[in-house]
Please model this.
Amino acid sequence: MSLLDEAQGLQEAFTTEVASATSAQALEELRARYLGRQGLLRGLFDRIREVSPEGRREAGRSLNEVKAAITTALEERTAALASGAEPETRPLDLTRPGVRPRSGHLHPLTQTIDEIVAIFGRLGFSLAHGPDVELTYYNFDALNTPLGYVSRSPSDTFYITDDVVLRTQTSPVQIRVMEKQEPPVQVISVGRCYRPDTVDATHCFMFYQVEGLMVDEDVTFADLKGVLTLFYREYLGRDVEVRLLPHFFPFTEPSGEVHMSCVFCHGAGCNVCKGTGWLEGAGFGMVDPNVLEAVGYDSERYTGFAFGLGIERMAMLRHGINDIRLFFESDVRFLEQF
Amino acid sequence: MRVSYQWLREYCEPPESPEALADLLNRVGIGVEAVEPVAGGDTCLVTEITPNRPDWLGMIGVAREVAAATGGQLRLPTVNLSEGDTPVEQLCSVEVAERRLCPRYTARVITGVTVGPSPEWLRRRVESVGLRSVNNVVDVTNFVMWEWSQPLHAFDYDTLIDHRIIVRRAHPGERITAIDGSVHDLTRDRLVIADARRPVAVAGVMGGLDTEVSSRTTTVLLESAEFNPLSVRTTIRDLNLPSESSYRFERGVDPAGVARASERAAGLIAEVAGGTVASGVVDCNYQPKRVPRVPLRYQRIRRILGIYVPAEEVLRILSALGFEVAKKTGRRVTVRVPSWRRRDVTREIDLIEEVARIVGYDKVPTAETVRVRLVRPGKLDEVTRVAQQALVGAGFFETVNLSLLPEWTASVLSPWCSSPAIEVSNPISEEYAYLRKSLLPSLLRVQQTNERVGREELRLFEMAPVYWPDSGSRTGCRERRHLALLTTLGLLEAKGVVEVALEALGLHGEWREANVTGFAEGRCLELWLDGERVGVLGEVSAEEVGRFDIRRSSVVAELQLEALAERAELIRRFQPLARYPEVERELAMVVDEAVRWEDIRELVEGLEIDILEVLGPPEQPYRGPQVGAGKKSITFPLLFRSPERTLSSDEVTREVERIVAALRERLGARLRTE
Model:
C-alpha cells in the first residue's frame, strides 16, 4: 500500500474514533496518538524518504492536508463537548416503543355526526334542535300521520301520556322550525329518537337520526336527488352506487328510500346485506302539502323536500362495527378504537 | 307478500327473468327482499309492501304495476259463474249488528260439493307462494285471496245453526277453538261471525274449527267481507293470532272488490269441487261511496318533480293504473279514482306520485348545484364542541349512554332535581322505564361495566340531554343539556379538568364547598357562576359505591351547558407579553393542619402587593417528624414582576418578608427553615 493510501486510511480511522470520543481526556489521548511527537502521522511523515524524489512534494502536501483535517476535526469535537451539545451518553435502545401521552377519544357516533353535519353545512344547511320528549301533535298529527296509523300504536311508540311521546324520528323538528319562520328554510337536525324495538345486534330502542329539510319556491325532486347523491358520495366514497326507489311516508309525497351498494361485499352479496348486494339508507320525499298547510305555508307557492337517516347505520358501515349495542355500552375497549 | 313468477305471467308480461322482474318492482316501489326458487322451476319474489298499498298484496295489483311500467296489457281473469235456481236468501240469512266494524258482508252458498284434494294446477299455485294445500274448497279461497288481496272464508253450511250469520261483538264468556287448534276466550272487544247460537269465526282473523270445511262438507257458505282495520289489528294483537287474511284486513281491502272476489271464488269452487251455486248473493250493510274525482295540472308535475312529462304519457300511466279519465283539457285532466285506491289517492299530489313512480325516479335529473345559505352555528353548539375538545385533549373518553334507566337508578344521585323522574307508560322493560334527570348514574354504571373487564383506571365524559318534570312546559318535561365526567384519578384532577374546560370557554367560576346527597362528606364542591349554581363535583359516597356495585369511589362532576353557554367567551383577547423579567421566589411555611390554601391565598391577596403577579400553585403538603404533630408544611412559588421596570432583588425580598410576617401573625405560620 502506498504512503498516500495509508494516510487516507489514517484519516478515516481518526474520523471514526473522534466521533465516539466523549470526554476531554479521550480527545487528548487521540490527539497524542495521531498528532503527537511519537504519533501515527509523524510516522508517515518520516517515511517520505521511501517516496521517489519526484513524488515527495506531492506526498508532503497530501500528508499536510490530512494533518489539517485531523486538527480541525479535533477542534470541532472539543468545542462540541465543551458547549454541551453532546447527545446522551447512556446507550439508548431505539427499538423500544415510544412513550405515548394519554389521549382522549370522541365517541364514534359524535365523529360520525360531526362529519355529517359538516357535509350538510358545506351545502348551506344550518343545525336546528328539538326535544326528545315531544308532543304527539308534532310527532304525528302535524306530520300527516292520523290516529289509527300503525306507527302510533304503543308497540311502535313510547308514550309518556296520550299527548306526549318520546319522539320516534327527528321529523318533528321540521314542524318546529317551520312554525317559527317564513320560508326559505334549509336546516338539518340531529338527535336521539326512540322506538320500542327489541334490542339486538342491529336494533336498539334508542338511536340517533339526522333530518334534513329544505323549503323554498321552486324546490324540486331533482334538488332532492342532488343533495342526497352528493351526501352519500361524500360520506361513503365516490364509487358507492346510490339508487333512489319509491317508498311511503305519511309526511312526504312522493316518497322514497335510498339503496346503496353494500360497502362490505361491493354488491357480491354477504350477510350484512343479506345477499342482495344493497343496503337501505335514508328515507326521503317531497314535503306533503298537508304538512306545509299545517304550519301556514302556501303549498301552491312553496315546495320542499325532507330526508332522514340513521346515524348508527352510517357509523357501522364506515367502521365495520357489527353490533349496535356497542355504541351504548361504553366499554372503553370499544371507545379507544376510534 | 310472495309473488310467484309463473303465476304472475297469467295476468301480464313480466320481464324475461325473475331478477329483471325484481328490478322492475323495486323501481315502481314494490320492495323485493329476496328471490327464491320454488318447486317446478318457478321462482318466488318476496316483497315488502308499504302500508298505503294493500292492493299490492294481490297478484292482480302487482300485475297492474308491471303492465303500467312496461306499457303491456293487464289480463284480468274471467269469472265463470253459472248460478242455479235456488235463491240464496232461501238458504241463509245474514245480519250485521256492528255496522261500523263490518262495512260490508256478503254470503254465497254452493250446494252439492265434493271436498277433496285440489287439482294439480291449484295445488301448484297455492304452494308456490308458500301456502299449504288443504282441500279444493279452502285452496280456492286462498287462491282468490292471493289473486285479489281479498280474504274469503268458507264455512261448512250444515254446521251453522239455523244457517244464520250474525256479525256481532262476542258475549263475555264465549270461547272459540280456531282452525289452528288454539282456544280463545272472547270479550266484548272482539268482533265475531256467529251463527244462531255461538261464534263460528273471529272476524277477519281466523275461522273456527267446528265449522271448517272438511271431507264431510257437502254445502259451502262462502264469506267475502270487509272488516274495520283497527278492530282487526287489536284482535290480532290481543289473541296473538296473525294470519294472511288478517294481514290484508288490517291494511284495508277494497269494498267494491268484495263482490267480485265472491263471484270468482264461487265459480272456481263449482269448477273444482262440483256443486251448484245458489242464485244471487246476500249483501249486507254496503254503502257504496260516490266515486271521487281528482284533478291534475300537467305543469304542476314539473314544479314538483323537476322534469317535464308529456300529457300523453301522463294519461297512459293513469289509465294503466286504473284511473279513468273523467274530463281533460290541454292543461289538466280529472280522473276517477278506482275503488282499491280510494284511501290512498285523494289529491293532485297523490297523482303526481303515481306518475313519478311509473316514469321512474331515475329519469329525474340529479341537480348538480345546491342553493347555499349563510349559516352561523348556534352558541350552544360551539360551546359543546369546545368543551368536547377540552375533555378529549385532557385524555377523556366520550361515552353515549341510554336516556332510559330503571327506577332506582333514575332517582339517586340527582343534584339538580328532586321531583320523581318522568316515567314511560309502555317501556320495553323495567330496566328502561324512566328518563334520567342527571348523567351521573349512567357514568357510575359505565364504571361498573368497565371494572368487570379489568379496566379500572377511567376518564370518561358524556354530553347529553337530561329530563326534568316541569308542569309549565307543554310536554310536561324540561330538557337541559349537561356535561358530566368521571375520573378514578382523584378529586383535584377532576377539578383541574373542569377548570381547563372553563378556561377554554373563557369562564371563571367560583368553587364552594357543599354537602350534596350522594357525595362523600367533605369531598364535594359546587361551581357557581354569577350567583347561579352551574356545577357539582365530588367523590362518590360509600353508599353509592355499594349501590352501584363499583370497586372504588371515583370522582364525578356535572355541569349545566346552557348556563355555561350563556356566559361563554369564545374569542380570546390578546394580552401583551411581559417586557420586564420576573423574579421567582419560593416559600415553605409550616402551619396548623386546619389551615387551608384558601386561607393563605386570601391573606396574601388581601395585602394587595402590586408586583406579585402569580401566587402558587402549592405543592403537595408535607407532614412528618420534622414539622411536628398537627402541622403541615406547604411549599409554594411566588412570581414577582413589574410592567414598568426590572425589579431589584431587595424590593422583592421586602415584599416576601411582608408576606411571611402576615402569615406568621394571622395564621400562626412559621418558615420551614426556622
Notes: Chain A touches chain B through 82 residues (CB under 8 Å). Chain A has twelve helices and ten strands.
